[in-house]
Amino acid sequence: MKRAYIKILFLSLGIVAMTSCKKYLDINTDPDNISDAPLAQLLTSAQVNLGFEGGSDLFRYSTLIAQQMSGQPAIANAQTYEYDRYNITGSDANNLWANMNSTTLSDLELIIQKATKTTSPYYGGIAKILKAYEYQLMVDAWGDIPYSEAQQLDKNTQPKYDKAEDIYKAITQLLTDAVADLGAAASTYTPGANSVIYTNGDFSKVKANWIKLANTLKLRIYLHYSKKDPAFSLAQMTALINSSGVTFMASTADNFQMPFFNATKQQNPIQQFESSRANYLFANDRMVSLMVGKSDPRLPFYFTPFPFNSSPATYKGAKPADPIGINYSRVHTYLRGAATGTPVMQAGGGILAGAYVYTGAAPIRMLTYQEYCFIRAEAALMGAPGDAQDWFTKGITASLQDAGVAAGDITTYLGANGTLTGTPAQQKQQVIEEKYVAIFGESMEPWTDFRRTGYPALTPPSNAVVASVPRSLFYPQSEIDLNPNAPKQKADLLQKIFWDN
Q1: Do both 342 and 221 map to the same domain?
Q2: What is the tally of helices (H) and strands (E) in the chain?
Q3: Residue 44 burial (10 A CB sphere; 0-12, 13-18, 19+)
Q4: Which of 12, 13, 241, 256 is 20 to 30 Å from 80 by CA-CA measure?
């Protein structure tokens, strides 16, 4: 599905420029097997893979753990039912790990190497940002992972594991280097229409987006230290915010997201999963109850009503031990794209999978302007520059607009829920709980915020395989089996990431 997304136009790129002074083919060379890919194709491949990852396994694990979606009512033996009760094994992570390392990060490393050799810093800068983003996700999922000896292909197939905190330091520097690359006066090769994130075709017009992303991602990383070392977190965020000339996301137009389309094999991975795995995922009661309690106008965009014909619309999320079935709200247009059709309500109030036909054209959001606003609000509560109330309002507004909420409903919601009140701890809870709803669909961050802050309060399912909400994932079983430098498998999912201590 991913490869079908990559445009066939790359067959006409520099590949055909390969020439030789020899008249005859080397019988040891397969002319149909391209041994080297050009920068343009590598960048497209890496971005497409990153986008698909954003709505695939890691997204499902984290959104189920964070109780935004539920697998409790899923059909018998469904994977999501097991994931929902924290039965996520090392073998479950094998494909995800392989894709992140052997495809996405491998492509990005090749881009960085080729960019250096060809003096193409614009390609190198983008690749370094994407590499930093991918490693941040991997650290937050597993903790210690290979970094310094990784992506060396056949030179080292058994890389050592680096400390997670050392990797965080390395990718922070990588982002600094990326901004310097993007600030270069010239580049031998420059991305164009082959860059499917921040698409424009004219790199001079989107270079600023990439720089904003690098700085915003760095701010996210610094915020992650807030539990382990709040003084360090505050100092680094303050220094970055106060740095002369540093730019951050300024609107939803700056969202780091992967576009998808209403076309076969180009629909987003959330929609592809939903259409191929009927009745595997439903709304979670934790998420729905939080939104219903605030009369949240994003509800009709996030979820389908339950009962379906309720007027005014009501919503129902699944709770632990709820019965298997379809009588719950389903994930709707915000994550799946525009919907057509006239669903028929079934006995009990639910609708059948497939009752709506979705375009699959919703983007996969990976780091958004609304997240940035909530980062700034939390940072301000810690003492960093900026007004917490102002950033809180901006974050809520951006999320409501991104979901498609009407202006009048935005005003009403802000009037009822948009003012920070109470003690600093209570205000922080308000920020995180609003952020939890606003970044629905962003892989990992709602789970990470819970691990950092304890908000929103999550209760493990009664049938969970561990007694507390997981703090990390098991290492892939393939690593345990094949890499002698891998650490011993974790005893359980309660092992903490360095910033969670």
Answers
A1: no
A2: 20, 6
A3: buried
A4: 256
Q: Are residues 212 and 344 in the same domain?
A: no
For the chain, the domain total comes to: 3
Q: What is the pLDDT of residues 309-358, one digit of tens each?
A: 999 999 999 988 789 999 999 999 999 999 999 999 999 999 999 999 99
Q: Where are the beta strands (DSSP E) in 97-161?
A: none
Same domain? For 421 and 491 the reply is no
Q: Supply the Cα-derived Rg of the chain in whole angstroms.
A: 23
Top pLDDT among 268 and 25 is at: 268
By three-state DSSP, how is residue 97 classified?
helix
Q: For residues 424-446, b (16+ Cβ closer than 10 Å) or e, as one string? A: eeebbbbbbbbbbbbbbbbbbbb
Through-space distance between the first and last CA atoms of the chain, rounded to whole angstroms: 39
159 and 224 co-located in one domain: yes
Least confident of 226-230, 275-279, 387-391: 275-279
342 and 404 in a single domain? The answer is no
User: What's the CA angle centered on 497, arms 492 and 500, to 5 degrees?
Assistant: 110
How far, in Å, CA of 377 to CA of 395, rounded? 8
Banded pLDDT at 64 (limits 50, 70, 90): very high
CB 134 within 8 A of CB 146: no
Range of the domain at 432: 369-439
Q: Helix, strand, coil shares of the chain as percentages rounded to 5?
A: 50, 5, 45
Domain assignment present for residue 454? The answer is: no
What burial class does residue 202 get, using C-beta atoms within 10 Å of its C-beta: 0-12 exposed, 13-18 middle, 19+ buried? exposed
Give φ, ψ of 252 to 5 degrees: -65, -15
Cα separation, 424 vs 453, in Å, equals: 13
Q: Identify whether residues 126 and 175 lie together within a single domain.
A: yes
Please report, for the domain that includes residue 101, its CATH number: 1.25.40.390
Contact status, residue 462 vs residue 453, Cβ threshold 8 Å: no
State whether 354 and 374 are in the same domain.
no
> How far is Cα of residue 354 from the mean position of the Cα atoms in its chain?
26
d(CA 492, CA 86): 10
pTM value is: 0.94
From residue 350, give the alpha-carbon distance in Å to each of 336, 347, 359, 374, 440.
Answer: 18, 7, 21, 34, 22
Burial of 314 (0-12, 13-18, 19+ CB in 10 A): middle
Residue 373 lies in a domain: yes
Inter-CA distances, 287 with 319, 404, 420, 426, 472, Å: 11, 19, 20, 19, 21
